[in-house]
Design brief:
287 residues; alpha/beta; ten-stranded parallel β-sheet; three-stranded antiparallel β-sheet
Length: 287
């Protein structure tokens, strides 16, 4: 399986250099990376930096599985130009996929748009980016995310319309984000499995009240508390996800986006085990 170093990769490459970041990734069992743009610690920041990253990764038998950008397109006049810049960097990095968010908020926006208003604003920008991406040989991906383009209907409505307008689009199947919309990811995998080109791996647990230890906690659209946890110990049914993805013929990367309070390395080990061995991990006491 192709496992991608996603969470913390950009920060580590920026801080320690791409050579050290690539060596760390290989030591953990990763075979690819996923840079995250749109952040203060963005890496790679230029086309030249991306080309160098590609060479370093290739020298270690690795590659860029996807290039992601966290951005709000709605009510953001600068979004389109920023995405086009990131897209050129992604192409220089040799990434086959370019994943970007649409309306980044993880909480309801006071006075924010209706879903229809958000669609009207976001769709034309996303379409122009996807068409430019096609010219560069890169496919645009969208994930269930935030309070708008999330869940089967929220993501599905947007993606179905994008797919009607251009063939250069696919799904980034985030296994945990749908809990913001009080849904499992399984219905998305069932309906759009053959459109999935990339996967983000994470897991969540649902405490009855906010954690007393002050650790980061989210609130779903329906008011449920949830927080990051070690993959395989929370609500995500990794075995069911694998069955649906395998049935759809998925052969792409599984990128680690786990940001639980426990050590990242432990989460990587557990996630890789859960995705490759499933029930056998539980029997061996690894989960």
């Amino acid at each position: 399986m192709d496992f991608a170093y996603y969470n913390y990769f950009t920060g580590k490459a920026k801080k320690d250099g791409i050579e050290a970041a690539a060596d760390y990734a290989r030591a953990l069992g990763f075979t690819s990376v996923e840079p995250l743009g749109g952040m203060d610690c963005r890496y790679p920041a230029t086309v030249e930096e991306a080309a160098h990253m590609k060479q370093v990764l290739q020298s270690r038998g690795m590659h860029t599985a996807c290039y992601s950008v966290g951005i709000t397109v709605w009510n953001n006049p600068a979004a389109e130009e920023a995405l086009m810049t990131h897209l050129r960097v992604a192409a220089a990095a040799g990434s086959p996929y370019f994943h970007h968010t649409l309306l980044l908020s993880l909480a309801p926006i006071p006075g924010g748009p209706s879903y229809e208003e958000a669609m009207e604003a976001v769709l034309p920008v996303a379409l122009r980016v996807a068409k430019r991406a096609a010219e560069l040989g890169v496919m645009c991906l969208y994930e269930p995310q935030g309070m708008y383009f999330n869940g089967l209907a929220g993501l599905g409505t947007f993606f179905t319309e994008m797919k009607r307008l251009t063939s250069n689009v696919g799904i980034c199947a985030d296994l945990g984000n749908t809990y913001f919309a009080d849904e499992s990811v399984l219905p998305i995998l069932e309906k759009f499995g053959r459109d999935v080109k990339h996967v983000h791996v994470k897991d969540y647990t649902f405490p009855d009240t906010p954690p007393a230890d002050g650790k980061k906690c989210y609130i779903s659209k329906g008011g449920k508390y949830f927080r990051d946890t070690l993959p395989g110990t929370g609500a995500v049914d990794f075995a069911a996800c694998r069955r649906l993805l395998d049935a759809a013929g998925y052969t792409g990367a599984y990128a680690m986006e786990n940001s639980h309070p426990e050590p990242f390395e432990e989460g990587v080990k557990r996630a890789m085990c859960a995705l490759t061995q499933g029930e056998a991990c539980i029997m061996k006491g690894l989960l």
